[in-house]
Every structure is written in structure tokens, then in C-alpha cells.
Amino acid sequence: MNAIATPAAFTPAPGNGHRLLEVEDLTIRFGTSDPVKHLSFSIDRGETVAVVGESGSGKSLSALALMRLLPRNARIPNGSIRFEGTNLLDLKDRQMRAVRGRDIAMIFQEPMTSLNPVATIGAQIVEVLRLHEKLSRKAARQRAIELLDLVKIPDPAQRVDDYPHQLSGGQRQRVMIAIAVACKPKLLIADEPTTALDATIQAQILELLDELRRKLSMGLLLITHDLGLVSRWSDRVVVMYHGDKLEELATADLYAPERHPYTKGLTQASIRLDEEVHYTAQTLAEVKVARSPDGRNIYDVRQPERRSLPTPATDREQLLVVKDLSVTYQGGSKASKALDGASLSLAKGETLGIVGESGSGKSTLSKAIMRLVNAQEGSIVFQGRDISRLGPQQLQPVRRDLQMIFQDPFGALNPRKTLREILEAPLIVHGVSNPAERRQRLAETFEHVRLPSLVADRYPHEFSGGQRQRIGIARALILRPSLVICDEPVSALDVSIQAQILNLLVDLKTSLGLSYLFISHDLAVVQYISDRVIVMKDARIVEESDHRTIWRSPKTDYTRALIAAANDKGGRPLAPRPQLHAAAL
Amino acid sequence: MSTTDLNAPAIALAGARQGAARPETSAPPEWHNVRAPDARTTLTTAVTVPPGRRELRIFFSNPNALFGVTFLSIMILMAVFAPLISPGDPLGMVATPFLWPGQDWAYPLGTDAMGRDVLSGIVHGSRISLFVGLAATALGLTVGVTVGAVAGYFGGWVDDVLVRIIEIFQTLPNFVLLVVLVAIAQPSALTVTVAIAIVSWPMVARLTRAEFRAIRAKDYVMAARSLGFGRARIIFQEILPNALPPLIVTASVMVASAILMESALSFMGLGDPNVVSWGSMIGSGRELVRTAWYLTLLPGLAIVFTVLALNLIGDGLNDALNPRFSEERS
Amino acid sequence: MSSLPRIARALRRTVLQAIPTVIGIVILNFFLLQLAPGDAADVMAGEAGSATEETMAAMRSRFGLNLPMLDQLLAYLNNLVHFSLGFSPRYSMQVSDLIGQRLPGTLTLMAMALAIALLIGLTLGSLMAAFAGRLPDRLISIFSLLFYSVPGFWIGLMLIVLFSVTLGWLPSGGNGTIGSDLSGWAGIVDKARYMVLPATSLALFYVAIYARLTRAAMLEVRNQDFVRTAYAKGLSPAVVTVKHILRNALIPITTMAGMHVGGMLGGAVVVETVYSWPGLGRLAFEAVMGRDYTVLLGILLLSSLLVILANAVVDILQTWLDPRIGEL
């Protein structure tokens, strides 16, 4: 307790073995399963360590364990967490509460829900100051304003009395950071701090975290699934898979050849904007993990293959021509324009990528083309016919050729239907009445998406996210469409599965002669899969170009900002990271 | 989900089977985002597990629910076989008035002021209570689900109008409206049933509407629309099965509250005058509550336990079908 | 930011939304009145036992009962605008006066019951949430389910048997000692003694509702991200529970409390009958017995307005509790 109670006054010397946190042999147990097994790692003062892994790797649980905030039904059967020499697991609840928020602070993934909605942001900062620093009400408020200024909230003296809902997501994450650094902690744990934010905001938040780390000479534990972010913002990396720590390495070695096959697969599978990979030139690496009979994991990396696919000619027959499409939503008394005069065209066999941040109107555009929302103005000419005013009956034959893949693999499948029911229903609706023919079409589609047809009588919840996305693709393909609209098809998936699905989509495109309208917020993904790219912002299309030009010589500031953000957020480290110096507060 | 997303059929199958044994699914954590650190995969609401045995198993492993089912089954049997269990007119005078329970074993629960057998009254009274409870619920559910489904699915002006109507009925105090309706229509088993249905459908409609609106916005309904499914198919195949769990729970609670309403009406003298009912027994025993309080106590216990049984079933169904907080109980 | 403009906006919205509801209820009321078998003249004639056709006709025209329906509706609306709910021949009194006499009794009873129900319900619910899944939770849960299953009139009678007949502690009916001239503190105690049993009978059902609701709301809030943030600050469980969890859980609880005002009015009808409490419920009972539909429908209309008023109060309360409501 004494060791922990020392004020954060001394200036740490960088990199000379000042151990801040030492986790040894940590196991976390729920009932009979151990989502984290024998984890050991350490953090020095002022150092940034990243724990990276996909979902189910146990990285977030490990972070919560450091704060002793694990769910009630979790146990820690063995291991120790030494913070400045004291094992946190030995502390009484009271003592642990004195550590939380003062010596170790944490920020979470969801800025939208991580702040109490009924208290002002000022009150929420003041609360932690009054608790640990015993400041007077007035002094705490003054300090809260300073902290808001520190995390670069404009006009802090005004905003201090705002409620969380009056702030944007990025601002809320800044407030979370202000709360976390209020008592100048020695260790800051950031659990996926930018995952829920738009790319341009992500870079700013990471910049801020790194700046504060230097100013306050904090250790920073960065929990993330995003390798790009790791390579740019951390000193050392701990790679986890399924509760196991696979390896620990200096960030600079992340791209070196001798690494764990999983790490290697992961780095290769995650595409980056600055590498300019394109589907016509190569496949994406796939990492697969199988379980051997004796219960060990076998890691298998499929290396990227070079290839040269032809780029589809854009002057060929136009499959889809959209002109001046506008959608206005009537929300109570006020109307909001969700799509404002969008025009685009898509040639047969082409993939048109659409990028934009949340609220840019890209999803509305896809739903309007699908006629799932009605556009008030404009035309949608599909296969030479304007479908924008067709009634449900006339649309029926069109729908066979125009299909959609949804973002959320969990929400896009009716949980009460088996796979067979999900896939046969479209055939029945579209008049395939012969059961033998339906069976045959089903088998064919299963083969297309590489799912074993044995699983046809299972329910969606029995499948993993990636498998569900394959089912979603199968449902879109079973009617043999010519155009498939992919609305963020890989955004909800882990990196390794993202690569598999993207490879699959490219294969299907070439073998079945499909055209795609591919929507994503992820520039690197769009860069990989698109022949042409459209950039959207505030319900409008702001730029359109072929897949090379748009990244190399963007015409608008907005596109430049998007590209800068994507490169800023992560990418191979070009220069050594700035180390902390006497800049401590 | 884990990276075990495999192409090889055998392993994929094994993976699917193992599903339940994976750490992230078998360890339900309390925080929303813990399950999936990269929570974008699980930001969606908890996935309901489709049809099934699992729900039934949870339901029948709940001792409270089991008690409810057992007790209710006994009551239903009693109602069906009332003429056999206790032959004769329950309203007929059979013995000396004011026999206390246990005083004469021919009438184990005693007799009332008119010399009527209390046990016979309770046995026969179960018929009207259960009939009104079940019939009113069936009627109320039918109307409520239809109105709620139409409002929730179609939206727009249809929704506006229906919501207004629902609101009017929800503003009128239920029991006062019930008394007015029965008083105007003259009490009988049928009018009481219809009147209870009239006051209880709005709650169902409101719930159904909310469910339909929520499910209608889900991607799988979007997918159904984009595949060109017809309205009927979307409503009955895609939305309704997923809206059922809360409705099933509501149904059991509705039966319970219908029984309570019927008994209160009978107590006030607004029940069917031709049949004996628990409420009317309490009503007639009321004046004598100072001396012969067993006349009030016994039929009251019959009501309490029947309603309790239904509520226990409702709770059990809720835990089984909407397992949001079920981990708190296990 | 001041919350006054938000509350004003919420109030305006509530009032605007209430208007069509009120109109709908008034029209429904009128048609129910038309559907009622016979009319007040029949009833009075039946009671007097010696009415001739002429005296009946005279009575009908005196009360406007022989006019065409549309005229009657207009007359009814006109009366309503002048705050008149019609005339009760049976009581020889304006219905509005009659209701006015009885309303305070019911309101006091309801306020008392609501206070008891909220106080005990919130406490039990918080306890259940704190011990979720463990023995105290299960025990309270069974008790609350029992309260939830007990008819109000029956528990009323049973409380009389226990507390006034057997133990003799409390009076069994009425709202004050007749003929007593108590004033000041003694008067209040006297009144309170009469109120304990009816208020408890009425409250029990709602104790169960609020307890279960509080449990559910607190468990829901307890799992939210901002609660984890609060723990990460180093706050103690007690502070987190009161400042962060309960404060947010109050929002859904208020909504439900508002929705139960109508139900509580209905409960009051039965409980007042049991305890001979001189309120609206007792009046409704007498009206049913006397087939005095004017009074009965007057009560229905007025109690609906009461519910609308309660909803408005809840809306304001919610706007005050939840800064997200009423934002532009």
C-alpha cells in the first residue's frame, strides 16, 4: 500500500528498467473455461505496450483484471499482478479502490455509453478529483476545466456543464481521457479506445493519448485488434490468441521475418492503404487456426498469391446508372436529407467502392438503390430500366438480379430459421417450385461460399461471425444476381476473417461474373477491392476516380484528410517513435 | 467469434458443435463489451437461440415454474371435472348454515350463511375463473396482436391512428372502464369476458407494436424485403416468430390479471349471477367477516394460489425466453 | 444549461398530445352513456314504484333525455365546456359537485398508497438487485410475487379480520371517528389510523410492481458501460449504486409509476368499497348499484382526466430526471 501511495512526483528515467507493472502467470477462469491462460508481460514507466488480438483472445479481460474489474463470476486461480512491487491481487477492496483512478486509470471502447448520461461532464470529472485529490468543489471544477482544455475540448469553461449527449463521440472519448488522467495516473489502460470512432477522429485521439503519455510520463497499455495502430503507436507488442500469449516483441520487429505464424498471418492479412495492394495483382494472406486432436492450436498461413486479373473496362455496358438520387427522412417535425443528389454509374463486371464516414449517406444510398427506402427525387436505371418508381409486383423480377450483403452477420439472419429455410425461401418466392432443383441450387451455393452442405439444418447462432457472413453471401447469390450491393460486409469481422471474405468475394466476382457496389468506411479495404471509388460526405458524393488516381492524387481536401487519417492512424513505423524526455508536467 | 473460421467441412462442423464450449460463449460476462474485445462483432443485441428444447429445459428446471404448472394443471382438472368431484348445484342449500371447516367432515370446508357447501363452491367457482381468464386472454391477445402488428409493421398514418386509439384505451382507468362496461351490458360470463378483453388488449397492442417496430428494422427483415418476400411472408415468417417470446410471457400474466378482474367484479356484484364464483363467494361472505371469516378466507386463497401459479409460470417463461438476466439467477 | 426551457417544451408537447386523447375519451363516454339500458327516469320510476307515463315523460324532457342523439351529444359537449357533467336525479345534485365532494378522499388514499408503494418497492427492489441470484433476492422475489397475486379487496378484508376484529388496533372502515371533534395533532392521528388499512391494501400490489421493476431497472443499468467507468474511478459500491445506478434506474421506474395511476384508481374503487371510504370508488359502487349511469360515466371521464394529468406530471418529472429529453 505504501509503495502505491507515493505521490507521482519523480521523473522516471526512460528505458532503464523502471518496472511499472509486472503481470506473471495470470489465468482468468469462468466456471470451467479459462479465457486467459498463464499470461505474463510487463510495462516500464513511460512505455507503451500493446496487447493485440482478435475477438475472444482474452485481451480485454486481461485489462479488466489489472483493474480488478472482472465480472463477478470470474476467478483468478493463479498469477500475480505487481504494480510498483505490490501485488494488486492481495489488496483489500478499499486499497484497490485507492489505486483505481489515481494510480491506474482506464478508458473504454464505447465513448457513447461510457459516460453517465444524466450527469454533466464536469461533474463526472470533479467526482474523481474530489475522491482522490480531496479538492474543494471550486478547485475541482477549475481543475476540470483545465483538464478539458488539456484534452483539447474547445471552449472548456462553457462545455464543462454539458451533458454527454451534447458531445460527439470523439469529444466524449476526450472527456473519458480527461477523467482518466485527472489524477495523473502512472499507468493508463486504453481498451480499444478508437474502435468506435471515425478514422479522422481515431488519429486525433491516439495523438492525444501519446502526447499525454509523454507529458505525464505514464505507462500506456493499449488493447487493440488493429495492427496498423499498434505498429505506429507502441514500443512493444504482446500478441494473444484465444487466451494464450503467442509472443512478445519490439514493435519494430512486427514486420521482421522470424515471427510466430499467427502474427505473421495477421500482419499480412491486415491490409494497409500505403501498401497499395489490389485484387487484380494479388490475393490476401489468410491465417487459419485449427485445433489438433490433442487440443493444441495449429496455425496455418496461406501466403498471398500473385496474379494478374484484367481490370474491367468501364466503358462497357452500364449495369446501373443512378441520377440525382435524393432521400429525405421525415423525423417528426423536421426533415433531414440523408442523400442529396447522388449520381453514379457502374459497368458490368466492375466493382465500385464507396467510402465515407458515419452519417455520410452511403448506407442510405445502398438502401435507396435496393428500393428499401424510397427516394423522393432521381432515377435508378438498372439493366436499362428505371426501377425507381416500380411497385412491389414489378420489382419482384428485378430483385432476382439485384441483391445485397449486410454488415452485421448476427442481425442479418433470422435466428429462428435453419440455413436451409433461409436459403430456400428466396427460391420459393421466386418460383423455383421443384424441390430437387432447389436442393441442387442450395448445394451449388454452398460450394460457392465454401460452406459444407452438411450444416444446412443448423441455426445461425451455431456459426461464427465469418461463417455467418458466408451464409449472408450465399443468400444473396442463390438467386444468381448480376449486381450485389455489399454494405460494409467485412467491418464487423476480425482481420483474419476479413481477408478470407474479401478473397471469397473476389473469387465469386470472377467466377460468376458479378458486379459489386462495395460500401465501407475502411479505405484500405475499398482500395483493395474496387475498380473505381466514390467518396461521400454529408449525404453527397464529393469525389469519384479510378482506384489508382484517387489515392495518389485526390482532388478534394476531404479525401486528402481521409487518406491522411488512415495513414496516421497506423502504418509501418517510418522513424523511431519520439521518446519521453524532461517534458513531464 | 474466434478465428476458427474454416473451410474444411469436418472441422467447421466440429467448430459449430463446440460453439457452446468456447470460452467467450460459456462465460457470460457482465459488461457488454467484454465478450468481444473487438466488440463490433457483438455490438448487436443478444442473439436469441431459436426454437427449442433449451428454453423448455430451462423452464422445467425452475422449481417455481414447475410448482406453477402443477398447481394450474390441478386447477384445470378440477374445473373440468367439477360435476364429478362435487355433484349437485353449488348454489343449493345442503346443510346447516355456518358450519366451520372441519366441523362436519361431509362438508370439510364448512357451509355459508345459506347452508351452501363452501368446498363445492370453490370447486365449481374454478370453472368461471379459468374460463373467463383464458377466454378473455385469447380474445385480448388476438385483437392486441393484430392491431399492434398492423401499427408496427405499416407505420405511417395507420400507425398514428392506431396509437391514438391505444392511447385512449390506456388512459381510461382499466377497472373503472370495466365496471362501466359490465354495468351497461348487464353481467354474464360472456359480457364479463368481452369486457375484460376490451380493457386488456391495448397493453398487448402496445407491446406487439414495439416488438414489430424493432424487428422490422433488423437486417434480416431488410434482407427479406430485398429478396422480394411478400408482406404476409415477412409478417408471419420473419417477424412474428421473433416477437413471440415477450407475448407468451404477457399471455400468462394476462390470464392472471383477468382472473383478478373477474373476481373483483363478482365481489362487487357484477359477476354472472347464475354461477358461483370465488369473487361472489367472498362478496357474500363479506358482511359476516367478523364472525365467519373462513367464508372470505377460503375462496380468497383459491384466487391467490391460482393467480400465483400463473405468475410463477410467467416468471419462469420470462427467464427461459428472455434470458437477459438469467445469469443473475443461476 | 437551464432545464426550464426543456421542461416547458416537454409540457407543451404533453398538452398537445393529450388533446386528441381527451376528445376521444369524451366521445367514447357519450356513446357509452347512450348504450346504457334505460335511463335515469326509468331507475327513479322503478324506485318510486308509482310513476305514470306522464311523470316519466315530464322527467325525460326535464333532463333532456328525449332529444335526438346528435343534439344530446352537443348538449353534452356544451355542458362539459361549462364544467358540467350532468345532473344526477338520484342524488338531486350536479354530478360534478358530487364528484368534487368525493375526489379529495380518493386522492388522499391514492397519494398515501403511492408513497407506501414507492418507498417499500424501491427499497425491496434495490435489495433484490444487490443480492441478485442469492437467497434474499429469491425470498423477496417470492413475496413480491405473492403480493402481486393477491386481490386487493380480499387482503383488505383479511387485514380487517386481523387488525380490527382480532387485535382491535385499527378501525375497520370510514375515514374518521364519527362525532369526534378532534383537531390538530389528535385529528391527524385519528385520520391516519383510518387510512392505514385501506392505503396498505391498495399499496401491496404496487409494492410488488415497483420492487420487480426496480430490480430489473437496476440490473439493467448495473451492466452498462458508464457503471464500469464509475468503478474504474475508484468509487465505492455504495456511491456507484446511489449516484450512478439508482439515479439512472429512476427514469424507467418513473415512467411505469405514471402508467399505474389509472390502475391504482381502479384499485381504489374496490378498496373503498371494502372500507366504506367516502371516495370516488365508493361513489362508483353506489352508482352501479343504483344504475346511475350519469354519475358512473362522470367518474370515468374525470378519472381519465386525472390519468392524463398524472402523465403530464410524470413527463415533467422525467424531463427533469433525464437531460436527454426535450432537447431541440
Please outline the major beta sheet of chain C.
2 strands, antiparallel
Helical proportion of chain A, percent range: 25-40%
**Beta-strand fraction estimate of chain C:** under 5%
As laid out across the biggest beta sheet of chain A, the strand order is: 6-7-8-3-9-10
Order of helices and strands of chain C: HHHHEEHHHHHHHHH
Radius of gyration of chain C: 24 Å
- Oligomeric state: heterotrimer
Shape summary of chain C: globular
Q: What's the total count of β strands of chain C?
A: 2
**Structural class estimated from helices and strands of chain C:** mainly alpha
Q: What is the total tally of β strands of chain A?
A: 22
- Which blocks of ≥5 consecutive residues of chain C have pLDDT under 50? none
Counting DSSP H or I runs of 4 or more residues, the number of helices of chain C is 13
> Residue-averaged pLDDT of chain C, rounded?
81
Mean pLDDT of chain A: 86
Query: Which regions of chain A are unreliable across 5 or more consecutive residues at pLDDT < 50?
Result: 1-16, 572-585
Question: Describe it for me?
Answer:
By secondary structure, chain A is α/β, with parallel strands linked by helices. In chain A, 33% of the residues lie in helices and 26% in strands. Chain A is built from 19 helices and 22 strands. Chain A is globular and about 70 Å long. Chain B is 67% helix and 0% strand. Chain B is built from 14 helices and no strands. In chain B, helix 6 (118-154) runs parallel beside helix 9 (189-216) and helix 12 (278-285) runs antiparallel to helix 13. The two termini of chain B are 24 Å apart. Chain C is built from 13 helices and 2 strands. The longest helix of chain C has 39 residues, at 184-222. Chains in contact: A-B, A-C, B-C.
List the helices and strands and how they pair.
The complex is a heterotrimer of chains A (585), B (330) and C (328).
Chain A: H1 2-5, E1 19-30, E2 33-44, E3 48-52, H2 59-66, E4 74-83, E5 86-87, H3 93-99, E6 104-107, H4 121-132, H5 137-150, H6 156-159, H7 169-181, E7 187-191, H8 199-216, E8 219-224, H9 227-233, E9 236-241, E10 244-250, H10 261-269, E11 286-291, E12 297-302, E13 318-331, E14 334-347, E15 351-355, H11 362-369, E16 377-382, E17 385-386, H12 392-401, E18 402-405, H13 419-429, H14 435-448, H15 465-477, E19 483-487, H16 495-512, E20 515-520, H17 523-529, E21 532-537, E22 540-546, H18 549-552, H19 557-569
Parallel strand pairs in A: 3-8, 3-9, 6-7, 7-8, 15-20, 15-21, 18-19, 19-20
Antiparallel strand pairs in A: 1-2, 1-4, 4-5, 9-10, 11-12, 13-14, 13-16, 16-17, 21-22
Helix pairs in contact in A: 4-5, 5-7, 7-8, 8-19
Chain B: H1 9-18, H2 23-26, H3 53-60, H4 63-80, H5 82-85, H6 118-154, H7 156-171, H8 174-185, H9 189-216, H10 219-226, H11 231-267, H12 278-285, H13 294-321, H14 326-329
Helix pairs in contact in B: 3-13, 4-6, 4-13, 6-7, 6-9, 6-11, 6-13, 7-9, 8-9, 9-11, 11-12, 11-13, 12-13
Chain C: H1 4-35, H2 40-48, H3 53-62, H4 69-81, E1 87-88, E2 93-94, H5 95-130, H6 135-149, H7 152-166, H8 184-222, H9 225-232, H10 237-259, H11 261-275, H12 280-289, H13 293-321
Antiparallel strand pairs in C: 1-2
